[in-house]
Design goal:
By secondary structure, this protein is an alpha+beta fold. It is built from five helices and eight strands, in the order E-H-H-E-E-E-E-E-H-E-E-H-H. About 30% of the residues lie in helices and about 35% in strands.
Length: about 170
Amino acid sequence: MNIDTFKPTFIYVIYIASTPDKVWQALTTDTLSRQYFSGFGVELEKKVGGRFVVRAPDGSEHITGEVIACDPPHRLTVTWDVNWPGLVEALGSTLVTYEIEPAGDAVRLTLTQANDRPIDDDILSGGRAGWPAILSGLKSLLETGSAPAIRMEPPRRMLDALRKLGIKTPG
């Protein structure tokens, strides 16, 4: 995979009253991620070439990937491939990068989602709705000790666009 061909499709920046180490831990551990990521748990081999998995609440592998860059607690890049039949073949892999930088008494967390080809805006709408909710939950968890239960409707626009491509989606 040539990551030089990937172009950002979404960038989200959030400031969290925390430390880089705590943000890193929340992004890379199962027990913390389940608290702010709607019950989904992150498993990560913290080395380049390591395995990356996001498990659904039922324990199934919802997202799988590979660690592309790992510099704790500053930067993590992973391939982020949703395990729906035909999805990666149709859209290619997605790269997700977390950059963690001190910002006074806070941390600036920048999330970049990138793809190696143009992706339809209807398909990208799912991530554009989901990432802010996930990262807001992360912020709340680290700042207050608990994450809100954020209720979101299924990303219909994204799901409809994927079905038009012949991708079998849940629901």
